[in-house]
Amino acid sequence: MTFDIKLAAAEAKAAKNAIANLTQAARLSLLLAIAKGLRSCVDSIIDANKIDLANAKENGLSEAMIDRLALDEAGVEAIAKAVEEIAHQPEVLGSINSIQPLPSGIQVGKMRIPLGVVAMIYESRPNVTIDAAALCLKAGNAVILRGGKEAQASNQALAAVLHSALEKQGLPAAIATVIPVPDREVMQSMLTLSDSIDLIIPRGGEGLIKYVSENSQIPVIQHFKGVCHLFVDKDADLDKALPILENGKTQRTGVCNALETLLVHAEIVEQAMPKIASLFSQKKVKVHACERSISYFDGASPATEADWEAEYLALEIAVKVVDDFDSAVTHIQRYGSGHTEVIVTENLGNAQRFMREVNSSVIMLNASSRFSDGGQLGLGAEIGISTSKLHAYGPMGAQQLTTEKFVVYGDGHIRT
Amino acid sequence: MTFDIKLAAAEAKAAKNAIANLTQAARLSLLLAIAKGLRSCVDSIIDANKIDLANAKENGLSEAMIDRLALDEAGVEAIAKAVEEIAHQPEVLGSINSIQPLPSGIQVGKMRIPLGVVAMIYESRPNVTIDAAALCLKAGNAVILRGGKEAQASNQALAAVLHSALEKQGLPAAIATVIPVPDREVMQSMLTLSDSIDLIIPRGGEGLIKYVSENSQIPVIQHFKGVCHLFVDKDADLDKALPILENGKTQRTGVCNALETLLVHAEIVEQAMPKIASLFSQKKVKVHACERSISYFDGASPATEADWEAEYLALEIAVKVVDDFDSAVTHIQRYGSGHTEVIVTENLGNAQRFMREVNSSVIMLNASSRFSDGGQLGLGAEIGISTSKLHAYGPMGAQQLTTEKFVVYGDGHIRT
Lengths: 416, 416
Description:
Two copies of one chain form a homodimer. By secondary structure, chain A is an alpha/beta fold. The first copy, chain A, has helices at 5-20, 24-40, 42-58, 63-69, 73-88, 127-138, 152-168, 184-190, 206-215, 238-250, 269-283, 305-308, 325-335, 348-357; strands at 96-101, 107-114, 117-121, 142-146, 176-178, 199-202, 228-232, 259-265, 286-289, 301-302, 316-322, 340-344, 362-367, 384-386, 394-396, 402-413.
């Protein structure tokens, strides 16, 4: 079986106006029909998922991968609920925030519009198929989904739900294309289709993102790793710092907004480090410590250059003592991944400087890095977290899948 | 002489914080020092320009190219004035438009920050060297400028002005790099430096833009051609339509916001077309007309498929009669270049539909396409007009050379 991605992309382009110009009421119906379809097709989705799981075991996939692949009734219900949430979020299209009268007499505003056709390239989790489709449809885009080979049967069952909902609204199936044969050739060919596809969002390992970024002729939004820092300033309130450290490092370790490096101001080391050591010991956090802090930790290993760059995604952390505020900022600028950085301080000047000078996508004062997520930051569901500065930076919701055009109102005005 | 673009880009990256964190007062001084430097070095700039002009003549460049290359005292003064205007525009960096309290108790806003290192690739006009540098510096970015070979001596004289102004402010010259040897190898190598360069903006012919888009591993903002449409609706007021047509087609023909195609609703043809024909005859506009309109024009040639795609940049226009509103929109969506489209109508419903459904970067009601320019739309100076939807769409000023990061204010907040 071969799949004609060029034709599919052209059909998506031809169908994009149909989704862009849908009324709010029709868009709501479409999304609710997807949620309903997920619930009524739960058996066929789970059956398809069983095929993927059996193949995964046969192919010797890791437990972690199989875990991400698996869908049960509760999993399908969670996806359906997420679609309903997206459906009921405020409309993003058509808004004009302000209109300015200009000296010539024309009035100028900017109106939010869809991007057109958005392609997602992702790996095993089948829930991404529906999450991404729902966010793209909410933003008025046609979507092309290229999931992982290991989730092929599940994704096809989910595609059937999408297409049935589109059909019920009298809309073309090409608005949501789920690539049936996710081989490498299809992806390579997709990356050249800049006439039809407006944006590519790769989600997955660093290798995939790097490959897509280097080979795409279409704009790419990158979601690289999260090497998140917590800087405990000399004027930190330790009653805030310790819970923020515990929450950031231990609440969930496998996520990109977990803390990976702790920087402690030299002047507060004697006071803070024993408490930090006690927390890590209690929570069984493995420590990679710099020379100036290693004596505080039982069983810590000496931090190497690799530790400053590490995204452990585990109960592990790198710890470094810094001489002053500037050293902390310099360290973050050198080793940070542009994701999320936190300062804990009661010093207003340092708080202001940190918020201003550290240019990762999310900068926090006295709050846990775990808030760095679309839902927690008020965007509703998210399609990922951009660590590249173009177009969107940080968590991306439906609004970040749109753009703005200029709208100009005249009454016969000409330029003199 | 070879030029190490990799080293230059790394130096620009190392210098970007110095320009990003400059105070407003220091940024103003820097830009005013550039304007002052242009005035005090006017003789050396014009001398250098004479070398380029002599080479251009020797190499048989066209009169139009030589015209774009030439700089006289008035030209240098105009560039200096533009820099002063940019200097005095409102600050774009550091602004936070709103802060939202969220259910968790954290407060979330977005702060405007520089992109980092911006590279411009452009052709003959030497004024772009200073315009682009000034806009990038205003937006807090380091800039790498790769102008055309034919303007090499002029660009080096302008680079000396930039570097002298940077030095006076105690800033590294790497903040504004003007590539001394603009050969193709340097450009090819530049397109791979995604570790150092955050954005590439090519300005020039379609070939250059296509080449850069297809080969860059760095995000690109495209400035393609302007095939701008004017649609005279059935309910148009011809007292508005005719001046808007005249202004759009004849005020300046060689610019991307000039009109190239006129669409006329079938129901208004008998009333409008004789007046339009008389205007074109008086203004000596060559007409490429569809079958249904050709009889109105003396000496018109029959429009072919190529005419619907043409960017004449001359006193020429394509004319087509359309059956209805939808046919006009369909024609624009098929042949438009995403630049600027105008409707002239007194019909509120059609006006609203046009503003909503046509997704070029600038959509106008009863106003001339000639307003489609950064200055006229209130952005101040512009670095170009984006016809790609990612990051910026339409005229780009200093603000479009920035991005936004999330800023989160807590008081010990953790995620539960």
